[in-house]
Amino acid sequence: MRTESRAGIAPRALPLFGHTLPMLYDPLVFLTSLPAHGDLVRIRIGPFEATVVCTPELVRQVLLNDRVFDKAGPFFDCAREAFGDGLATCPHDLHRRQRRLVQPAFHPARFSGYAQVMTKHIAEVTESWQHDQVLDIFSEMMTLTVRIAVEIMFSDTLPSAVLQAVFNDFNTILADIYIRTIVPPTLDKFLIVGNRRFNRARNRLRKITRRVITDHRTDGADRDDLLSTLLTVRDPTENQGLSDTEIVDQVITFFVAGFESTATVLAWAVYLLACHPEVEQRLHAEVDAVLGGRAACFDDLPKLQLTGRVITETLRMYPPVWSLARTTTTDTHLGGHPIPAGTILICSPYLLHHLPDVYPDHDRFDPDRWIDGHPAQPPREAFIPFAAGARKCIGDTFAVVEATLAVATLAARWRLRLLPSRHVRPSRSVVLYPRGLRMCATPRGEPRNRGLTGPAPTGMTQT
Ligand code: HEM
Predict the structure, then answer these.
(1) Using a CB cutoff of 8 Å and minimum separation of 24, what contacts does 303-310 make?
(2) Separation of 364 CA from ligand 1 center, angstroms?
(3) Ligand 1 atom closest to the CA of 102, numbered from 1
(4) Ligand 1 centre from 341 Cα, in Å?
(5) Closest residue (by CA) to atom 21 of ligand 1?
(6) Mean pLDDT along residues 130-146
(7) Is there a contact between 79 and 431 (Cβ–Cβ < 8 Å)?
(8) For residue 257, how far is its CA from the centre of ligand 1 (angstroms)?
(9) Is the Cβ–Cβ distance between 118 and 147 less than 8 Å?
(10) What is the three-class DSSP state of 204?
């Protein structure tokens, strides 16, 4: 008779803290060390135990079965407290209806309109840069993606003071949420200041969003923005739309899910290009041939092949959402191991994207591995920057279109060079953005500043 055993536990757990410290200080190195200990590896984060899923096949089984592997557990409790029960955080039983209602906003027919807004803001932001200006790249990319998101969501831009408040509140919440989920509840009381800041930011954010919704409903203007779509959608099966509270949750969800992750890809792409001049040179040749110095637009996308692969490879190396959590709703099995109901599972896009047997030379930035028919082209199930299954990112096309247009336009006009001895490191938050990424902007063709490249991010392997 076959005996079933639980998955093994990762080595070096400390009393009380378990594996909290490596998850707090070096989660990427810690996670990528786990496949050496099995296909499923248990880790302890404070009082919680989680099982990390280490193979593409098992990750796929988890992501495709959202009834058994649902969005629940401490991370989602905390996310729901902050953002409500929107599409990204709601449990399985609320999800299908919400997805049906929200999907029309992401219909392919809408993308040429969205791309016009993207092209306009990308051109404005990149034109605002000065010769030899030192830029905080992540913050520039955040400005860009927020401006695009605000216009697509609300059509008129919000007053700048309101926009700034919204922006700050999101940052507060996103910065605090990771810490709040992995610090043991016994130590929660030490987060008093953080808790107050978190609650204040959350309440203000909901209030502002509700006010914008009320204004939209009462002025009755015929707008073609995403909020108007959410206000008018009807579920054909029950002839009902979304309530105001549901719309607040969705709006906040789109902002949380959308702008920081897209800004992150953009910032890493710019960084990787600066570290790889041979790829940058080929990219320049492509954008010069396709764009001739103008901003990229929707119709250019099929011709921006290398630009597209640069985005794909960036999403592989630095997937903005580096860890996905699920909780089992029933006793089940995975990879031959019994998994009791209530088990927290972690699927990490970062871990899968750096598996050496799936991605040869996994630390190398190689956009060409994505050329169709390339002998080392990775299997699709091992590439999950947008997750998979019913909970797959609804904004994946939106993000890829925006990132491709932005990188192409930027490369057509500017060279961005790392400042000497800058330490660029992946953040330790929900989204894996580059910390400390400051670069100098030189108009294309300007020979000065060439060769100013800095070191690889600390704590990371050379890219
Ligand atoms: C490069 C940019 C982006 C990345 C890497 C990304 C990644 C992801 C991932 C991994 C998930 C699944 C999370 C999970 O299963 O726990 C997700 C879900 C989601 N994303 Fe994105 N996202 C990006 C951009 C966007 C944009 C631009 C939007 C909106 C305009 C968006 C809206 C959403 C929503 C609403 C969900 C929940 C979908 C559902 O459960 O049905 N995302 N995203």
Answers:
(1) 304/404, 304/408, 306/282, 306/367, 307/283, 307/404, 307/407, 307/408, 307/411, 308/400, 308/404, 309/367, 309/368, 309/370, 309/371, 310/269, 310/272, 310/273, 310/279, 310/283, 310/367, 310/407
(2) 26
(3) 35
(4) 26
(5) 393
(6) 93
(7) no
(8) 5
(9) no
(10) helix
Share of the chain above pLDDT 70, in %: 90
Residues with CB under 6 A from ligand 1: 87-88, 99, 253-254, 257-258, 261-262, 265, 320-321, 324, 385-387, 391, 393-395, 398-399
Within 10 A of 336 (CB to CB), how many other CB atoms are there?
A: 12
What is d(CA 371, CA 369) in angstroms, rounded to the nearest whole number? 6
Q: How many residues belong to the chain?
A: 463
Q: pLDDT digits over 259-292, tens only?
A: 889 999 999 999 999 999 999 999 999 999 999 9
Span from the CA of 57 to the centroid of ligand 1 (angstroms): 21
State pLDDT tens for residues 49-91: 999 999 999 999 999 999 999 998 877 887 787 778 889 999 9
Phi, psi at 233, each rounded to 5°: -65, 150
Average pLDDT value for the chain: 87
> Of the given ranges (195-199, 309-313, 371-375, 397-401), which has the lowest mean pLDDT?
195-199
Place 456 in a pLDDT band, splitting at 50, 70 and 90. Answer: very low
Is pLDDT above 50 for 169?
A: yes
Integer angstrom CA distances of residue 178 from 14, 79, 84: 20, 10, 17
Nearest CA to ligand 1 atom 19: 393
Give Cα separations from 24 to 21, 180, 428, 449, 461 (angstroms).
Answer: 5, 11, 7, 37, 19
Residues near 27 by beta carbon (within 8 Å), at least 6 away in sequence: 322, 323, 428
255 CA to centre of ligand 1 in angstroms: 10
- Ligand 1 pocket mutation, candidates 393, 396, 397, 431, criterion most atoms within 8 A of CB: 393
CA distance 34 to 156: 48
**End-to-end alpha-carbon separation of the chain, Å?**
48
Mind listing the pLDDT tens digit for each residue in 212-268?
Answer: 888 888 887 767 788 888 988 888 777 888 988 999 889 888 887 888 899 999 999
Bridge partners (DSSP) of residue 326 are 345
Residue 109 has pLDDT above 70, yes or no: yes
Rounded to the nearest angstrom, the distance between the alpha carbon of 88 and the centre of ligand 1 is: 7
Atom of ligand 1 nearest to the CA of 86: 35
Instruction: Report the pLDDT value the prediction gives residue 364, as an integer from 0 to 100.
Output: 96
Task: Measure 186 CA to ligand 1 centroid, in angstroms.
Answer: 32
